[in-house]
User: Fold this.
Amino acid sequence: MTKSSRATTDRRPLATAQELADHLQVPLDTVYGWKHRGQGPKAIKVGRHLRYRWAEVEAWLDDLSAGRAA
Assistant:
């Protein structure tokens, strides 16, 4: 999938770090720690704020579950 086709297929609002933490039921500091260590779902910097594409979060979760199944 190209960047332009991905942008047109996933028009959901970007998630904030707090929304991601709430969704995953982890502390906000955990989300920031993942970013600092280069772990977790891919983050986008918007100004000084972190934002997450829900598709990236879902892909990251899929990778986690695939890694545990192996």
About this structure: Helices lie at 3-9, 17-24, 28-37, 54-69.
